[in-house]
Specification:
By secondary structure, the protein is an alpha+beta fold. 25% of the residues lie in helices and 19% in strands. It is globular, with a radius of gyration of 22 Å.
Length: 417
């Protein structure tokens, strides 16, 4: 029996035996969730709002991303109930409270605690929890419309095409649901995913996950540009929350009035870096590959980090910014003006059998329409980016990120209206 089938078999019992279901959503925490009347907490990010937090929110330092598959046998009502319970728990945890209504010390000693406890005494450290829906939630690989929502799959939620040079691992790609937990405390982020996974037991199983550290993009002007594991500043020209007009144009989706209004689309890529090969390249080769200087992050065409890139500037050997440099091929002028809001993170997952680092970049980008943003940009990069010699894409996913949650509602409610 498959993992999905196993958890599907468990699901009926879990729903009837007290994962929390209607009792939890009808309890005091539901009243708190509806009113937003949680106790004040240090470093808390508001959960309720027009957009989900964790998109234009100032990028935190740590990430725990997880994709889930909904169990066989789950129906529409069960999925909605799971999203309601996730909403309750997320609203609490982002405010520094436990995932359940009972403190660990006051719970029933004959039952599992409603919170796993490892975040006791910790502040939320800016925790945001962002939830999305994958293409397979609308229609699975067998063509089944399990939840009666196939007709509401957004046109922009396309299956990503195969890109040249990628070597995707099926077990590290896709998923029915995704959860992005970001915090400045790694234990807080892990606690959030762990408890949402615990709540989902018997109804959804984790398909794959990724821990990230050291944000590689700044999403507000107050943040300095961070560095990736190649040692270069990453995301100098990233969209910023303060760029309201650009954010409205390139990030927020569904302005025509459908259920995705005020939502966004998330594309994620796990990019493994060939660290050892890169580390033995000359500084001049590294800078030519990127198109910027390594210490300051300035364009090779001159200036400082935030100087405009001059793609027409030439030196004795040709263009100062090579024609296959990453910054040239990724620049909006090479992609019909398309921009992305990136929220990437470094990762280091040990080593392989040859002693090489299994490390790289967990790329995450929010956008209004992947068909006109991520897909054409990645197609261009995959074809001729000099950086391809040092990277390989091993994981992938695309998700519709529904709008923010109104008080008294739940994550993704417009989809099921």
């Amino acid at each position: 029996m498959s993992r999905r089938g196993l958890f599907g078999a468990l699901g009926a019992g879990a729903l009837g035996a007290g994962v929390g279901a209607a009792a939890v959503f009808g309890s005091d925490v539901a009243v708190q969730a509806a009113t937003g009347n949680f106790p004040a907490a240090a470093s808390a990010t508001p959960f309720f709002g027009r957009h989900q937090a964790g998109i234009t929110t100032a990028s935190q330092d740590r990430l725990y991303f997880a994709a889930f598959d909904v169990a066989d046998g789950m129906d529409r009502a069960g999925l909605i109930q799971l999203l309601k319970e996730w909403t309750n728990a997320s609203a609490r945890m982002t405010q520094g409270l436990g995932a359940g209504t009972e403190p660990v010390s006051a719970g029933d000693y004959e039952a599992p605690p409603e919170d796993t406890g490892e975040a006791l005494g910790l502040s939320p450290a800016g925790l945001t929890i962002t939830v999305g829906f994958g293409p397979s939630l609308f229609k699975d690989a067998a063509g089944r419309d399990r939840f009666g929502i196939a007709g509401r799959r957004p046109a922009a939620l396309v299956d990503l095409p195969a890109f040249p040079g990628e070597d995707l691992i099926a077990g590290s790609s896709n998923g029915d649901l995704c959860v992005q937990a970001c915090s400045d405390d790694p234990q807080v982020a892990v606690h959030a995913i762990r408890n949402l996974s615990r709540i989902a037991f018997g109804r959804a199983v984790m398909r794959w996950s990724q821990l990230g550290f050291g944000r590689t993009s700044s999403t507000t002007r107050a943040q300095v540009t961070a560095r990736n594991l190649f040692g270069f500043k990453d995301g100098t020209s990233n969209l910023k929350a303060e760029d309201t007009e650009l954010v409205n144009r390139w990030v927020w989706a569904g302005r025509e009035g459908d259920w995705m209004r005020d939502g966004s689309y998330l594309t994620v890529r796990k990019i493994q870096m060939r660290i050892e090969t890169w580390d033995h390249q000359t500084l001049s080769d590294q800078e030519a590959t990127i198109g910027r200087t390594k210490p300051q992050g300035a364009p090779l065409s001159g200036g400082t980090e935030y100087s405009a890139l001059n793609f027409h500037a030439k030196g004795q050997g040709g263009p100062l910014i090579p024609t296959d440099a990453h910054v040239r091929l990724a620049h909006p002028t090479a992609n019909g003006g398309a921009q992305l809001l990136r929220r990437g993170y470094n990762f280091a997952d040990g080593n392989d059998d040859l002693g090489r680092m299994n490390a790289g970049l967990f790329f995450a980008a929010y956008q209004r329409d992947p068909r006109t943003q991520f897909i054409p940009v990645q197609t261009r990069l995959a074809s001729s980016d000099a950086l391809n010699e040092y990277t390989v894409h091993v994981g992938s996913g695309i998700f519709a990120i529904p709008p923010g949650v109104e008080r008294g509602s739940y994550l993704g409610a417009p989809l099921f209206a």
